[in-house]
Every structure is written in C-alpha cells, then in structure tokens.
Specification:
The chain is built from no helices and 20 strands. The chain is mainly β and about 325 residues long. The chain folds into two domains: about 55 residues, no CATH class; about 260 residues, no CATH class. It is rod-shaped and about 110 Å long.
Length: about 325
C-alpha cells in the first residue's frame, strides 16, 4: 500500500485497498503488479462538459429584470420592444394580472338603460276649492243688438268676483264684458313620492391593463383622449374607466283642475241683493257688478311626473395604443 503525502491541513486515513482523503481527492491503489494505477482521466470537477454531479458554468441569457430603454419600470421589456414615447406607459393586456400588478380596468361600449319610474298617484278630491273669478275688459263702446257684446277701444281691465263692487265704468260710454267663463284656484293633497330604479350599467368590452401578467399583448397607454404615435404603436383604442350618471325620474306633482261657468251681472242696489238690472254680456257703466254661479264644477286633482330624466355617459378616457 502506498501513502501519498498531502499538504498541511489535509487528513489522510489509510484503508486497505483505497485511500480516502478529506480534501475530496481520491487516489486509486496500485495495481497488483506494483505499478501505478491507470490514469483516471481529467478531473471531473474541472469541467462542466462531462456528465457529473458538479455543474459547469451556466449561460444566463438576457437579463429580463432590467427594463429596456424608455420602458415602464413596471413592465419587463423584451429586447426587441420599441421605445415608449413620452407621456405613455407600457402595459400588458391580459385576462388576469399578476397579484398587485393591475394598472387599470377600462371599458368601451357603455350600455345604460333609462331609469324605471314609479307610478305617480294623488287623491282626486281637492284639499281646498276657491270660487271662480273672471277677467273683465272695459271697452269704449258697445256694438250689436241689445249690447250683448262689446267692441272698440279697450279702456282697462279688472277681476270680477262674487263680491258686489261698483262698476268701474263711470258713465255709459264705458262698457264691461267678461272674456271667459272664469277660473278657480285650489289645492291638492301631496302626491306619492317618486322612487326611481336605476339599472346597472354594463359594457360591450372590458380591458385589464397589467404591469405583469403570465401572458398578454403589450401596448402603451395614456390618460385622456390623445393621438397614438406615428409608428410602432399606431392602433388606437379609446377606453373609459368611469361613468357620469344623471339618470333619474321627474318628481311627482299634483295639479288642481276645475271648470267654471261664472257670469258677470249688473245690479242697482249697493249690495247686489235686489234690483238686478238683467244686464249680462256687455254691461253699461255705472251701478254695481258681481259674478254669479261662482262655484266651480268638476273640481279635481290629478298627478303627473314620473318621467325618466338624465343619462349616463362615459368618462375618464384612456387612450390605448397597440402595434398594428
């Protein structure tokens, strides 16, 4: 058996038929003839070409951890990607972004149905009903058999009611005639409140922009509606990330309605209780006048409103530019 002397710090343990060296160097025993053992060949630890448990150097390839020039620092840039123009950011369009890497969710093709309005109802019986009043016009003269209607120059106007009042005409040269059957005022109970239902908006398409994704299409984007670059990223797509929604319903309202058949009459007595002259239509000046039949007929309340109002519009535009 042969022992080989090693440098200081190396431990040697002799074993029949082999020598184990703590420095991981194996020395084969001499052959039976006393000669040295055959050349074992090159030391496998000195090369990565042989199939051994000790690897050789590894080619690291392109360093994907460093973005390409002008690329968004959030997106790993490939070696052949065009530079990103000023104001834009590189983005990957994908179905699913890597956790925490979503840059935006944008949409196109807004679908926003109008609001559905509740029915407007009100008690048809008025809360209060006033008497009818009539607008009266004074003319400079009358015309027609028996003075049944007035014509000529208009002198003035006034409102007649069931109250007995002096005829504003001071002589028979001014004649008074009512211009309508009159109208009455009234109030109604409050209508039912309006409770609109606003449908949810939907979109024709939704796009997820990621700084990192397992797979997807690489584009660039910028907030707002802007032009795409003249080269490389020339295909424009305008998306939106928000909605301006004013949809609703008009308020329910209650309207008082009535029909009047009031008639202007002329009286001789100061309280319009006796000595009615019988004059109607075009009444000569002097004496006193008042309306009769002043109570409205068919007084009622009706509800209106409850119509869809407003609209939903796309907002917060995002310009997406992709390779053609």
């Amino acid at each position: 058996m042969k022992f080989i002397a090693l440098g200081s710090g190396s431990a040697v343990v002799g074993v029949a038929g082999a020598v184990l060296i703590a420095a991981c160097t194996v020395v084969a025993p001499e052959d039976a003839t006393g000669g040295d053992a055959p050349d074992a060949g090159p030391n496998p630890s000195q090369s990565g070409d042989a199939t051994t448990n000790v690897p050789g150097p590894v080619d690291s390839g392109t360093d994907l951890s460093t973005p390409a020039p002008d690329a968004s620092p959030d997106v790993e840039a490939g070696p052949d990607w065009p530079p990103v123009p000023d104001g834009f950011t590189r983005v990957v369009l994908a179905e699913n972004c890597a956790p925490g890497s979503e840059l935006f969710t944008a949409h196109e093709g807004l679908i926003a149905p109008p609001a559905t309005c509740s029915s407007c109802d009100v008690d048809p019986t008025p809360l209060t009903v006033n008497e009818c009043t009539v607008d009266v016009t004074r003319y400079a003269n009358s015309r027609g058999g028996g003075g049944w209607y007035c014509s000529g120059l208009v002198v003035s106007t006034y409102v007649a009611s069931s109250t007995c009042t002096p005829n504003p005409s001071v002589n028979f040269d001014a004649w008074s005639a009512q211009t309508s059957w009159g109208e009455a005022a009234g109030t109604c109970n409050p209508p039912t409140p309006q409770t609109p239902t606003i449908p949810a908006v939907t979109w024709v398409d939704t796009v997820h922009g990621c700084s990192s994704a397992p797979a997807g299409k690489t584009c660039i984007y910028q907030a707002g509606d802007v032009d795409c670059p003249a080269s490389d990223y020339t295909s424009k797509r305008l998306l939106f990330t928000g909605v301006s929604d004013t949809r609703g319903c008009s308020d329910c309202t209650a309207t008082f309605e009535s029909t009047c058949r009031a008639t202007l009459t002329r009286w001789v007595s100061t309280d319009c209780s006796t000595n009615r002259s019988g004059d109607t239509g075009c009444i000569p000046g002097g004496a006193y006048v008042k309306l009769v039949n002043v109570n409205p007929i068919e007084a009622r309340c009706s509800a209106s409103g409850g119509e869809p109002t407003g609209q939903a519009t796309q907002s917060d535009a995002v310009t997406l530019c992709c390779p053609p």
